[in-house]
Amino acid sequence: MSISVNDNPALILIDIQKGFDDINYWGGDRNNPEAEQNAGKLLAFWRKMGLPVFHAKHCSSNPNSRLAEGQPGNEFKDIVEPIEGEVIIKKNVNSAFIGTDLKERLEFTNITKLVIIGLTTDHCVSTTTRMAGNFGFDTFLVEDATATFCKKGTKGQLYSAEIIHETAIASLMDEFATVITTENLLKALEISK
Q: What is the rounded CA–CA span in Å between residue 55 and residue 57?
């Protein structure tokens, strides 16, 4: 799959919210510390080129969650703070397509290519990417602009954030999305200008 500025690809930023800064709350360890910086680079390019941008925001139905509305953690991180004209999609499940009008908005504007970045790789990024692929969107997942946390298995064993991230990416690669790095994506888009 190829991608070009002329394709008018949409950048979908998933849950890049301040609540994820509390690493202990989410598992105690995180991978890809540069994910937000890469997300910021991609967002800056999308804005410069006038390409469509959609910010998904998780609004947890658990009032004690770091991501619940009204909690400081519900706010977007400063590096990807939406600007006027950028769409904000509020969700309370792990897909940006469920309970929202994201699919309708994309179809209404004839967008067929999606670039997905954000938090966390194995939850909302994975679920949104799977649904995007199943809906027939030509989907690109930027592996170094996503990140996750370590997880405990059924027997209490600890899986590192990097292992969780890598296996989530491996499960999505080729079947649901083209996996790409920030650098290679920007290179491909620069060439196509």
A: 6
3 state SS of 184: helix
Q: Residue 169 corresponds to which tokens in the numbers above? A: 């990416």
Q: Determine the 3-state secondary structure of 149 from DSSP.
A: strand
* Tokens describing residue 97: 């397509």
42 in Cβ contact with 82 (< 8 Å): no
Query: Mapping DSSP to helix (H, G, I), strand (E, B) and coil, where does residue 176 land?
Result: coil
Q: Locate tokens 């499940």: which residue?
A: 93
Closest-CA residue to 126 (of 159, 165, 183): 165
Binned average pLDDT, 10 residues per bin, the chain of 193 residues: 92 98 94 98 98 98 95 97 97 97 98 98 98 98 98 96 98 98 96 81
Cis amide prior to 121 (ω within 30 degrees):
no
CB contact at 8 A, 117 and 14: yes
Torsion of CA 97, 114, 173, 147, to 10 degrees: -70
* pLDDT for the residue 1: 67
Q: Is the dihedral of CA 91, 92, 95, 97 positive or negative?
A: negative
Tokens of 10: 């949409």
Q: If you search the block for the tokens 């504007």, which residue do you land on?
A: 109
Give the phi and the psi of residue 16 in degrees, each rounded to 5: -85, 80
Six-digit token pair at 51?
Answer: 């390409």
CA 26, CA 96: separation in Å to the nearest integer? Answer: 20
